[in-house]
Amino acid sequence: MAIVIQFKEEGRRKKEEGRRKKEKITIIFRLPIPNSQLPITNYQLPIPHYRDMENTADNPQEEIPADMLYLKPKFKISWQVIFAILMFFYMYLPILVLTFYSFNKSRFSAGWEGFTLDWYVKLFSDTRILVALRNSLTVAICAVAISAVLGTLMAVGLSRYRFPGKSWYQGVAYLPIIIPDIASAVATLVFLAALAIPLSLWTIVAAHIVFCLAYIALAVSTRLADLNPSLEEAALDLGATPVQAFIQVLLPQLLPGIVSGCLLAFVLSMDDFLIASFTAGSGTTTLPMEIFSRIRTGVKPDINALSVLLMVGSGGLAFAAEYLRGRSDQKRAN
Fold it and tell me: Range of 329's domain?
């Protein structure tokens, strides 16, 4: 037996545009009645159309002014945005001025005499600059290559193994990062003089390995902290040797951190002046040393052009490192 209750309602309402027939929307739902032998009952309830509720007390459209209905949100600039813009302008204004005067036709940066690219052309024909650049690249590449191997092994050893004096060794290993460059330069010079080692290009390489090693090890250690050690243990359980587990499982995951640390160490090695000037032999000149020797009598446009090229190269390496880090994080998230 079923009880069907139907409620129907029809009405008309007078509006400014005329009389409109009220639309009836019927909702049918089933409501079980507990503790009863009656079957499920169907209810039909009319719901008024939403247009009939436009001018009710809950939605008084006539009382809202017309200009408020089309109000657009105002664009507000917070003081944090203004402060950030001013700080970026303060930091990068010298770089913009340097780039601007690198295209100056005048031999001096006192005034603007016209646009030219001659200083960039003359820069690549300057023998002293090219020799200094070759020496800097030799030092940076050799120091970074050796530091990449030693720094990676040191970071893995400090992260995976325990041995007496581990905390002490870990603090000493990262000490070159916080020691001033002048102190490291003097200490390296005294050490080389005590061992009677003649100064040359390779003594600069040996001195640069010290701080490059610390930066690469720090980058790899940060990467190791985010890895799951069970992957390496699973490879060992499946029959891989420790060397195979390191090369085929752990090393590919550490590669983004190694590349980021190498790029950072490369830029720092190319930029170093103090340590290189203390440990360089006679006739050995790196690019920062050559630039410093030329700006004693004034900054010339060719040095401005060289500085712009160095900043573009360093910026490219920084963007490459950030891109690799972003790709690594995206793959790990997927």
Answer: 120-333
Q: Are residues 127 and 51 in the same domain?
A: no
Average pLDDT of the chain to the nearest whole number: 78
Is residue 70 in a domain? no
- The residues with which 88 forms a beta bridge, in sequence order, are none
pLDDT in tens, 80-115: 889 999 999 998 898 888 888 888 887 776 677 788
Q: Tell me, what's the pLDDT at 171?
A: 82
Which residue, among 181, 138, 151, has the nearest Cα to 270 in the 3D structure? Answer: 138
- pLDDT at position 38 is 46
d(CA 135, CA 200): 11
**94, part of any domain:** no
Q: How far apart are CA 187 and CA 255, in angstroms?
A: 33
Is 71 a domain residue? no
pLDDT at 64: 55
Among 39, 64, 89, the domain boundary falls at: 64
As for how many domains the chain has, the answer is 2
What is the dihedral sign for C-alpha 160, 166, 168, 169? negative
Q: Does residue 104 sit in helix, strand or coil?
A: strand
DSSP E strand stretches across 68-223: none
CA–CA distance, 236 with 255 (Å, rounded to integer): 20
Is there a contact between 204 and 138 (Cβ–Cβ < 8 Å)?
A: no
Instruction: Give yes or no for a contact between 245 and 232, defined as CB atoms under 8 angstroms apart.
Output: yes
**What pLDDT band is residue 7 in, cutting at 50, 70 and 90?**
very low
Q: pLDDT tens digits, residue range 51-71?
A: 444 444 454 445 555 555 555
Are residues 128 and 25 part of one domain?
no
Residue 75 forms part of a structural domain: no
pLDDT for 217: 92
- Count of CB atoms within 10 A of residue 7's CB? 10
